[in-house]
Design a protein that fits this description.
The complex is a heterodimer. Helices cover 65% and strands 0% of the residues of chain A. In chain B, 77% of the residues lie in helices and 0% in strands. The longest helix of chain B is centred in the first third of the chain and has 24 residues. Chain B is globular and about 60 Å long. The chains are: A mainly alpha, B mainly alpha. The interface between A and B is medium-sized, with 23 and 36 residues.
């Protein structure tokens, strides 16, 4: 049976050491650091954990706005298909197509002449 | 450290004309004590160096708000202890280990450079590292730094009774470990 070691008899000496002149250098290093203006990084300022959900919300809003602003282009064939599906009669379809052509002609005329010239022609 | 000297240091620091001079004196007065306190927690010299520098940068930023409710050096010890424990927590996160597993890993660093202890002193340090974190802090502050229980109580925010029990348990565990080995 070993004798119990009483740690009060071990001397309590600090067994660690440091490089030579370490404490003088440490004081200088600390004083230099407080003299150097701190660089503020936006990423570290707004911690990434805070930033991530904000970025996710912005991305969702942006994609929603982008999707809603997409021009809705329907070809005549697609339109006919839709009208057939809802059983809308052909006369109404022709009226619409004629109306669209007239509108295009009007656009064309307004592009070619100024408004007064158009009145004069009429 | 004399309480009167601490008051003079704080007054020097709080005077806008002598702030840096006051801070320089505080660093020169306390850098050794804080370094050795931190070194016994993080073991490695380079880590202790980083932690002590961060501690004093924090002190520089917050000393203006120091109201003197506690003694200056217990306040400094508290900041240094928090910095050292935060450092170990970061290490724990980095290594995906528990803080006690990190302590186990620290054992290997005792055999590294900047250690001139005898074989029994090395065994003592390794035995201290097997203690739970709070017992380790209490043991080091009482055994090596010779702080009073009232001072340790101010630093760790634990009652004197609990600290006495903690030190007693720590001492027993260490003695059993040293006797076994």
């Amino acid at each position: 049976m070993k004798n119990k070691i009483d740690i009060d008899n071990l001397g309590k000496r600090n067994p660690f050491t440091v490089p030579e002149d370490y404490f003088t250098t440490l004081t200088h290093t600390i004083m230099d650091k407080i003299d150097t203006p701190e660089k503020v990084s936006i990423i570290s300022f707004l911690h990434i954990k805070t930033l991530a959900p904000v970025l996710a919300i912005v991305a969702i809003i942006f994609s929603g706005v982008w999707y809603n602003n997409q021009p809705l282009e329907i070809t005549d064939e697609e339109l006919i298909e839709v009208l057939d599906y809802y059983e809308i009669d052909n006369d109404l379809l022709y009226e619409y197509l004629e109306f669209e052509d007239e509108a295009q002609t009007d656009d064309y005329l307004i592009d070619e002449y100024n408004y007064n010239e158009l009145i004069y022609e009429l | 450290m004399n309480e009167q000297n601490d008051k003079e240091l704080i007054a020097l620091f709080k005077n806008p004309e002598t702030t840096k001079q006051g801070f320089n004196k505080i660093v020169r007065t306390y850098n050794k004590r804080l370094y050795w306190h931190v070194r016994k927690i993080v073991i490695c010299h380079d880590d202790a160096n980083d932690v002590v520098q961060n501690t004093f940068i924090k002190v520089w930023k917050s000393l203006h708000n120091f109201r003197g409710d506690s003694q200056l050096y217990t306040w400094l010890y508290r900041i240094a202890t928090n910095e050292a424990l935060s450092f170990l927590k970061k290490k724990k996160k980095h290594l995906f280990q528990s803080i006690d597993a990190v302590s186990y890993q620290l054992e290997s660093q005792i055999d590294g450079s900047y250690f001139t202890g005898t074989e029994i002193e090395k065994k003592l340090q390794k035995a201290i590292l097997t203690l739970p974190t709070k017992q380790r802090l209490v043991f080091n502050m009482k055994y090596f730094d010779k702080l009073k229980y009232e001072e340790i109580s101010e630093i760790l925010g634990t009652s004197v009774g609990a600290l006495k029990a903690s030190f007693h348990h720590a001492k027993q565990k260490i003695e059993i470990k040293l006797t076994k080995d």
